[in-house]
Amino acid sequence: MENLNLPSYPYKLKKVDDKIYIYDSLRRKYILLTPEEWVRQHFVHFLINHHQYPKSMIRLESPLKYNSLLKRTDIQIFGRDGNLLMIVECKAPYIELNQSVFEQAAQYNKTLKAKFLTITNGMKFYTCKTDWEKLEVEFLSDLPTFT
Description:
Blueprint: E1 13-16, E2 19-24, E3 29-32, H1 35-51, E4 58-66, E5 69-78, E6 84-90, H2 99-112, E7 116-120, E8 125-131, E9 136-140
Parallel strand pairs: 6-7
Antiparallel strand pairs: 1-2, 2-3, 4-5, 5-6, 7-8, 8-9
């Protein structure tokens, strides 16, 4: 897998029938290693170890009904009040983080109404804060630290 622009962590891999799996400490099981999963696992550890997001507040691959289609968000983070705080859309490192990637994540967030939205390909990430009352979006220079 490609080196990412995220801090490394002591990940665990295993090989079964010529396929490689990575251990997901939140779901407590091995997940098929794809470029997107590589990014997701690194970003989760970045959230936990460098921005103080508690493991108990993070949910992975949560279902979402959008335009009567069943979709999944890559990462959902909840606040201490139980409300959705942030969604994170992960892409493979070779996927450009362009307007269409942001619009896909923003469409999901119109349904979910998280305060923060992040897109990442493991090489870079962009985070914005949404004021749902004023319908204003502000791009941030960094991820907010969990408080």
